[in-house]
Design a protein that fits this description.
The chain contains 15 helices and 23 strands. An 11-stranded mixed beta sheet has the order 3-7-8-14-11-10-9-22-23-21-20. Strands 16-15-17-18-19 form a 5-stranded mixed beta sheet, sandwiched between helices. Bound molecules: zinc ion (ZN).
Length: 486
């Protein structure tokens, strides 16, 4: 489609909403950069367009690579789970039942057993794990799958943040000992750091969730929380120490080295690529639109031929693509200025401008998306310069996101201060009587008064309380973080 046609329809080229109006900005960038089409006629289900899928495929590749480096193997389990599987773990079914979609009929015939669309795959996978795990030699068993899951969320849905169908990875591990399971929790958090933070540029804090906010059926839940530009926390990957709860319900036992039969220990980990994508969009974007880290950009380079240099542009594209770079040539009849805006809005990290004079002199102009910095480079050094500038862009936007994130943590030692801090958004560090069941009443009072949640206590650093519970005034046992959340 040409610019002329778009303007004739009354659409404005480029972004019109500044990022400080985050909610509207987010919706506009999804539409204008063509990440998703929001007009599908099933509430909470999203139509993903190529520009988001290309990025998420790269995100999947990086995450799956990291899981496999750490000895996880891929599997594909069915999307449906028989009702009887769910009933085996009482807390799990209780937690998930309100959100389940059920398949009840085949044609006009009612099924003898209802099938749930998986909301998560514990009850599918562990049914098979009980058949696969026999001896200590079968352990550890570390499997993952990349798939969609379905939860009939009744809260307001937001594209890439909260939906009734979302795309994620789930890893399910089985061990012979509790210690190995606990170490896996640490390894899961390391993967979150190595991939989500260092590759996608999404900063986070690791929390142990309070007792009242655990995954249904888990002994402990640990979660990485990031922050959105509007100051609301967003939960990213969580990892659950399942202990022996599911292993007992699903009969996952093994004969140990001492010939005794033992119950296995388990963990599960759920990096939701879909939701991480929302953080990538939200944290790195600016008033002009999207900004992608170089490695996961849908297209990494946009070449704009100016004044009849199409042939050279396609030649350069071929050369860069052979080196594994994703490159688009915009040879449409739009003006160069329109094209610059368009590819900036779509977040392409590097733009290459190629005019007749540059072709003649054997050079090209390279423009970085994040800073707008223009560099003249030798044509022969095109690949090297693209990689260098791409790497610099990634480093720079990650450190920008980190600095912003660090500034989003404040401190409160009274309910009044807590309320004031929460008004300006971010995480508020404060002290609570307990993160066990005893503390729930105090957390509820925070929730009622400020519509904010106790996210838990940090697990990356040890923090000792010095004063009293911010709510009830009894001696504080924990340093906790409170935030409004998505
Ligand atoms: Zn208290």
């Amino acid at each position: 489609m040409s610019a002329g046609k778009k303007e004739a329809k009354g659409d404005t080229v480029g972004m019109t909403v500044p990022k400080k109006d985050f909610s509207e900005w987010f919706t506009e960038v999804i539409k204008k950069a063509e990440l998703a089409d929001l007009r599908y006629n099933a509430k909470g289900f999203l139509v993903h367009r190529p520009w988001s899928v290309l990025c998420m495929k790269e995100m999947y590749r990086l995450y799956e690579g990291e899981l496999e480096r750490r000895c996880h193997m891929p599997v594909w389990f069915p999307a449906v789970i028989p009702e009887s599987n769910f009933k085996k773990e009482a807390e799990h079914i209780e937690g998930f039942e309100p959100e389940l979609f059920w398949v009840t009929h085949a044609g006009s015939d009612e099924l003898t057993e209802r099938l749930a669309l998986r909301p998560t795959s514990e009850t599918a996978m562990y049914t098979m794990y009980s058949k696969w795990v026999r001896s200590w030699r079968d352990l550890p068993l570390k499997l993952y799958q990349s798939c969609q899951v379905w939860r009939c969320d009744t809260k307001a849905t937001r594209p890439f943040i909260r939906g009734r169908e979302f795309h994620w990875i789930e890893a399910h591990d089985v061990f012979a000992t509790e210690e190995e399971a606990k170490n896996q929790v640490k390894e899961d958090m390391e993967m979150t750091e190595v991939i989500m933070h260092r590759e996608f540029g999404v900063p986070f804090i690791s929390f142990q969730r309070p007792e009242w906010d655990k995954f249904p059926g888990a002994v402990h839940t640990y979660a990485a929380d990031t922050m959105m530009p509007d100051g609301k926390a967003l939960q990213q990957p969580s990892t659950h120490l399942l202990g022996q709860n599911f292993a007992k319900s699903f009969n996952i036992r093994f004969k140990d080295k001492d010939e005794k039969e033992k119950v296995a220990w388990q963990t599960c980990y759920g990096p939701a690529i879909w939701r991480m994508f929302s953080s990538v969009v939200a944290l790195h974007g600016d008033d002009k639109g999207l900004v992608f880290p170089f490695k996961i950009a849908p297209m990494q380079v946009a070449i704009i031929p100016i004044g009849g240099t199409e042939k050279e542009a396609y030649g350069l594209q071929k050369e860069l693509m052979e080196a594994g770079i994703r490159v688009i040539v915009d040879a449409s009849d739009n003006t160069p200025g329109w094209k610059f805006n368009q590819w900036e809005m779509k977040g392409v990290p590097i733009r290459i401008e190629l005019g007749p004079k540059e072709v003649k002199e054997g050079r090209l102009t390279l423009v970085r998306r994040d800073t707008g910095k223009k560099t003249q480079v030798n044509r022969k050094a095109a690949l090297k310069s693209v990689l260098t500038e791409g790497g610099e862009l990634t480093k720079s936007i990650i450190s920008k996101a980190d600095n912003w994130f660090t500034g989003k943590i404040s401190n409160a030692s009274s309910m009044k201060e807590l309320g004031e801090c929460l008004k300006s958004g971010g995480f508020v560090r404060t002290e609570l009587c307990s993160v066990g069941k005893d503390g729930e009443a105090c957390a509820d009072r925070i929730k009622d008064r400020f519509h904010a949640e106790v996210r838990g206590k940090r697990i990356d650093v040890e923090e000792k309380p010095k004063g009293d519970c911010v709510v009830c005034g009894s001696k504080a046992q924990e340093v906790v973080y409170v935030a409004k959340q998505y």
